[in-house]
Amino acid sequence: xxxxxxxxxxxxxxxEALLDLELPDPPAPKGRDLLVEVRAVSVNPLDAKQRGRAxxxxxxxxxxxxxxxxxxxxxxxxRMFSPGNEVFYAGAVNRPGSNARLQLxxxxxxxxxxxxxxxxxxxxxxxxxxxxxEALFDRLRIPHGASGGxxxxxxxxxxxxxxxIQLARALTGLTVIATASRPxxxxxxxxxxxxxxxxxxxxxxxxxxxxxxxxxxxxxTTQTERHWRAICDIVAPQGLVCAIDEPMTLEVGRLKxxxxxxxxxxxxxxxxxxxxxxxxxxxxxxEVSRLADAGTIRSTLTRRLGPISAAAxxxxxxxxxxxxxxxxxxxxxxxxxx
Length: 338
What we know:
Belongs to the zinc-containing alcohol dehydrogenase family. Quinone oxidoreductase subfamily. This protein is an alpha/beta fold. The chain has helices at residues 45-53, 119-123, 126-139, 159-171, 183-192, 204-209, 224-234, 269-272, 280-293, 310-322; strands at residues 2-6, 19-22, 33-43, 61-62, 67-74, 86-89, 102-106, 110-112, 150-154, 175-179, 196-198, 215-220, 235-243, 261-264, 301-304, 328-332. The chain has 2 domains: 2-125 and 277-332, Quinone Oxidoreductase, Chain A, domain 1, CATH 3.90.180.10; 128-264, NAD(P)-binding Rossmann-like Domain (Rossmann fold). Helix 3 (126-139) packs across helix 4 and helix 3 packs across helix 9 (280-293).
């Protein structure tokens, strides 16, 4: 099968940082696995981080943590999907990724893709939707329909922030405050439904406090350490902060006077540790698909990279490494007839 992989950690400026390869097809699906023919994939910061840091020791390693495609075969214990179903998913960080024509994935972390969207638009959604949903409703424990306060989304124009804004507007009555530092990112956040947009390059605490609404929930999608003192100043007494950055040093004691808490979101935790509620990801993707088909939320696809290839995906890696990407970049098809 066609695949895009890497065999050595190289910078994105190196044209051989990703390679177009022919690799063996995956084996027939077992257990609750699906064999999916991948039609579109999106690029996430995780792809670039793994390519730059996770040494595959000379063996081809397939990245890709977002896909939309068609089910071609199902394992003997699979019960949710049938061959021919069009699906979307983020996959698992400890298995071969989606940058391949064929991929095995556990059906419990897969959903039927939105019929209203095309494959590329669908592929932009899974990882960011799962991360945002789990952060808001599982980690911050925001009740559906909650009102009477605000949610602050730090980094509103990124992939995860873009979905957090939309899900909060669709499923809660909270005031949604997003942060953005450029005119184009501010406009993007407003277009997704943020009630207010403040500049995280300025005095974040002062700007949020000037809005005059308590903030019991803060979701920090980026640079938590940089914004930590402002976050601790902003969060309401007994509030919660959720972060997705990689491990860092934080003055967690600053939350104690308010009896506030810090929680982490790690969207691969359920599948990595085989938790009893793995199927929650299937259920939330089902709801995301319903919301997209109803027109309540939209795809965050902003850049089409062309057919899936090493060159196209490497362009996507460079975009996310620049840290100025709005929404998601997606590659679709394999450059030949299906």
